[in-house]
Design goal:
Length: 132
């Protein structure tokens, strides 16, 4: 059984929310009910085939979903909102690692996620342009 920190359903939910997508919209894209999406988001584990479909719709890779971290997102945005040297979000960890190394790692992970989300949105815009 997966550890709570690996709860794939919650990660799907958070990424969907960050994209501003409602459960209903994800359900339509997947061809399932909103209740089924809700059930997926409450599940600690999601089958690989389903995760692949969901990730594609969200414009990310399955690995990006698996590696998603709310702490990483908070830290990433705090780098823009707090330029002080005593950034609480970075030093709040009881850590045995270098906070600067961790910050760079988090930045790189989220940069990839952002680029994937941006690419997905651009593709959607092109599809909508071509429909007209």
């Amino acid at each position: 059984m997966a550890e709570p920190t690996l709860h794939i359903g919650r990660k799907i939910s958070k990424i969907r929310e960050l994209k501003g997508m409602k459960q209903e919209a994800l359900a339509v894209e997947l061809g399932i009910s909103q209740q089924a999406v809700s059930k997926i988001e409450q599940s600690a584990e999601v089958e690989d085939a389903a995760l692949e479909k969901i990730a594609k719709i969200l414009g990310v890779t399955p690995e990006a979903v698996k590696n998603f971290s709310e702490e990483a997102v908070v830290n990433y945005f705090n780098t823009f909102n707090d330029n002080s040297t005593n950034n609480g979000a970075v030093y709040a960890f009881n850590s045995t690692f270098n906070p600067i190394d961790k910050l760079i790692e988090v930045y790189e992970e989220n940069k990839k996620l952002y680029e994937q989300l941006l690419k997905s949105e651009r593709e959607k815009v092109e599809i909508l342009k071509n429909k007209n």
